[in-house]
Write a structure and sequence with these properties.
By secondary structure, this protein is of the alpha+beta class. The chain is 32% helix and 27% strand. The chain starts with a helix and ends with a helix.
Length: 273
């Protein structure tokens, strides 16, 4: 199956999972539980997980599937995977519980430690971001699809997107450094993987993530931003990669719409972020 056909199939799977999520979202009982890491889990997470895993296994039986809600897979086994699906069935569960609409279904294909195809679906709005390294990046809404790309240069003011839930002194230092180097900064907040998608579609210039994330939180949107011409790099300006760590935790990172070297001036304030 070529990349374009695979992308379409995964888009349909994400949309089906999104419908299952909305069935719970529009009801009264989310059946919220607390996982071992103190993060919330709802009936919607598990409904989407079951759909996505079953559909991907039927679509590509030879490619393993790793979901946030899967049983743990030993690192030694994972390291033998050259390609695998990396899934967050419901990214932004806290936003889901708050009913603010900023949650997504994330499905990514990882090949040689890099995301090469990704779909990010937003169930409440029906918006879908999708992209592949060979196909390009797109935003789809109400059946209309348009190509998207990152901004060719930082805007004035520079648009910085930040998490609703994680604000830090380090983030303030980054904002101050950008102001000194590039001029005024406009900060906007967003939940879930939508922050990365804002950079992919040219609505923001930079998203610094200086708080913990797991690989399934970023992989699908990373594929989209790559396909749109952008980058995700760690605080040493090295490309973010996947399935290299036992714990599947990402380092802190920057999502950038322009050449990472343009942002190298941030290195002193990033420090040990």
């Amino acid at each position: 199956m070529n990349e374009s056909a695979l992308l379409e199939a995964v888009r349909e799977i994400a949309a089906e999972a999104g419908e299952a999520i909305l069935d719970v979202y529009n009801g009264e009982d989310f059946a919220v539980e607390t996982k071992d890491d103190d993060s919330p889990l709802t009936r919607a997470d598990m409904a989407a997980h079951r759909i996505i895993v079953a559909r991907l296994e039927a679509l590509t039986p030879d490619i393993p599937v790793l979901s946030e809600e899967s049983d743990a897979v030993a690192a030694a086994e994972r390291r033998g995977w050259s390609r695998f699906w990396l899934v967050d069935p419901l990214d932004g569960t806290k936003e889901f519980i708050k009913r603010n609409g900023e949650f997504t279904v994330n499905i990514a294909l990882i090949d040689d430690h890099r995301p090469v195809l990704g779909v990010v679906h937003v169930p409440p709005t029906g918006v879908t971001y999708l992209g592949g390294v060979e196909t390009g990046a797109f935003r789809e809404e109400q059946g209309e699809r348009r190509a998207i790309s990152v901004r060719p240069r930082p805007a004035s003011p520079v648009v910085l997107v930040a998490s609703r839930s994680h604000g830090t002194d380090k983030l303030a230092a980054v904002e101050n450094a950008i102001t000194s180097e590039m001029g005024p900064v406009e900060r906007t907040s967003m939940g879930s993987s939508l922050k990365i998608c804002l950079v992919a579609e040219g609505a923001a210039d930079i998203y610094p993530r200086l708080a913990p994330t797991c690989e399934w939180d970023t992989a699908a949107a990373h594929a989209v931003v790559r396909a749109a011409g952008g980058w995700i790099v760690d605080t040493d300006f090295r490309e973010l990669t996947y399935n290299r760590r036992d714990d599947l935790l990402n380092p802190h990172f920057l999502v950038l719409g322009t050449d990472p070297e343009r942002w190298r001036f941030l290195a002193p304030v990033l420090g040990d972020a």
